[in-house]
Amino acid sequence: MGTNADTEKLKELYQSLDRLKASGEDVIAEIRREINNIELQYLKDNLFPEIMKIIGERISWLRCTIDMSLQFDGDKQIDYSFCKSGSIVFVRDKYECNGHDENAIEKSGTDSNNQEIIIGTSNRINGHDTSKHSKTHVPRVEFPDGRVFQSNIFSDTYTAVIKGIGAELVDLVGLEHAGVGVVSKTLDAKYQKPIGGGWYVMTNSSTQTKSEDLQAISDELDLNLKINLVPLDGSETLYLPKSTNKESTRTKIQVTFPDGRKICSSKVLEALIEVVKYAGAERVRELRINCCADNLILKTPAPRYEKPFKPVGNGWLCNTCSDTITKFNQITEISQKLNLGIKAELV
Q1: What order do you get walking across the sheet with 66-72 strand by strand?
Q2: Which superkingdom, per the lineage (predicted)?
Q3: Where are the domains of the chain?
């Protein structure tokens, strides 16, 4: 089946746009709208079914899962990136188109799926286009101090929350996607937004993943964030993001004390705190375990690290600003050097 897109009309509209583009946006707005509709129909009917057919034929025998993205600059360059799901290797490359072939549409005979393109009213929010048909909820993140972050663009909320927490703290949690840290001082991928201080936030992840990232950051740093999805119909009900039960698969630390007592909290920082209390804060301090360029145990932490410090007795505070593996190593070091006989396991 051929394309339903009127490609001859599209070519004429391109020519009209070129002739009239100096006349002002009010003159060419209708032309742009028609171009947009026909381009969408062409992409749906002719281009992507053909691409998917080729990819499907060559990939179906593989056993891996793949994440990928593709961008065309509207002229000659196609940028694409992909990774095997869960892999730390992130591949990026580009393809230079040799030229414009306006007759390409007549050269292909790809069947199209009987799909409907919904042309919705465009919302412009912070420079982004969002369709009214595509969203029923928007994210809302509340801090215990009363700060609230809410935007129709989840990546904007995600970025603002991370900036509000502090990139240095988030970096210590150790989250990454496709080999790129959620926060980084290195510009490694296209989907990284600058947030100041030389830091970038990786936003190339799904809404669900962003929700889980924020929950993981909140748990690791004991921030007590409230992360919800707010319905756009104006009702008061707040819906928690759909859960894939990631918390149950997130690595925890199980600590077994010599008396047989076990702890395995969903918040791994609690394992470290209990071990420090058991050992005695002063004794742990004497071990000079480094955390955030200072002693793990302090009485007066630097202001930017005040929140992750938790009381462990006699006015001493323990720095919990680290990822799970670091906390596990700290617990192991404390037990071994003080001969506590504690068994620590990653579960």
Answers
A1: 66-72, 77-84, 91-96
A2: Bacteria
A3: 1-63, 137-248, 251-346
